[in-house]
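User: I'm putting together a small comparison set for a docking exercise, and I want a reference complex before I start. The sequence is below, and the ligand is magnesium ion. Could you produce the 3D structure with the ligand included, as structure tokens?
Assistant: Of course. I'll restate your input first, then give the structure tokens for the complex.
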Amino acid sequence: MSSIVSDVVVDVQYGDCGKGKVTHHLARTGSYTHVVRYNGGHNAGHTIYHEGKKFVTHAIPCGVFFGIKSIIGPGCVINPTRLLEEMEELRSSGIDVDGLLMIASNAHVITDWHLVEDGKDSVIGTTKRGNGPAYRDKYGRKGIRASQVHDLQDYIVDVYEEFHNNQEYEQVKVLFEGAQGFGLDIDWGDYPYVTSSHCTSASAFLNGVPPSSVRNVYGVGKIYETYVGAKDFEMEDSALAERIRSVGQEFGATTGRPRQVNWFDLDSISRAIDINGVTKLVINKVDVLEALATEGDYLRVYHGDDTFSFESIEDMRYYIQEHLGRENMDIYFSGNKDRI
Ligand code: IMO
Ligand code: MG
């Protein structure tokens, strides 16, 4: 029996808050034995700067950048063709995935038919990567598991054996890399404008480790909010939204769609902190609003029924710290340009 510890990275807004950056930093510094994607599929787009070079990963956990075993967990859905392409892209950029990338035998598969079906969506504004239909078939008990797919055989792993009966390590140390975000969670998000998987920290424990293994939950948010999809989300003042979108480069890493922009919502993040059990909160892209502060009224948050404006980014940070602070949680503010 191996002992297991784990840390979880979870997005506290609507995705695209910088999970890639935080996970990459932790994988580099945290001496993990495994990095595990715990939900979602190729709908995710994680932007990572590795040794000065930009990468966008979709299904492959960021452990591969550091020679760490990287598992696509049982909570995920996989498009085999896309996955093999993503592996090839990484290989051709000098990132060695072979011998590191593994796929849980009980993860599910996105079929061509799932892609066709999802391609017809006009209600939710999905990424059209087949996620919804693949999860529907999984829960309808009509799905196909990764272990049944010929092209994936070289990568299949029994997650139980890998985590619990591993003679290789004295202690298995897992970093869980979440996809999507709390606001897109199938249960806690703004239904039906959600994705089809569980995006909360609890979802990590559906991937073969016990809840008692968790040490830290890293909640990742942004100093303003963005959302991509069919519902109306953007702030009233479209000129301000446009400026933030342009300075913050808020365009989907997977589909290239412009992200709708709104102010930081204290109440919804507070809820996300409580439900996910966040112990370390990272608020990204602070420098984007800081750069815009001299141009106009860009330093705002929603709190209760009101919007609050601030004179300086320091005042805004102080207010956030005051109202989100918890006894057992640290808050870090980070800039887009801090490439950690
Ligand atoms: P990462 O991991 C932001 C959104 C889609 C749509 C809804 C449902 O990069 O943060 P789906 O294709 O999942 O059925 O679409 O969820 N969405 C994301 N938005 N970041 C993501 O992933 C997303 N993955 C899905 O835009 O509104
Ligand atoms: Mg993304």
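The pocket of 6-O-phosphoryl inosine monophosphate (ligand 1) is lined by residues 11, 14-16, 43-46, 124-127, 129, 131-132, 179-181, 184, 193, 195-196, 228-229, 253 (CB under 6 Å). The CA atoms of residues 183 and 297 lie 26 Å apart.
User: Thanks, that's exactly what I needed.
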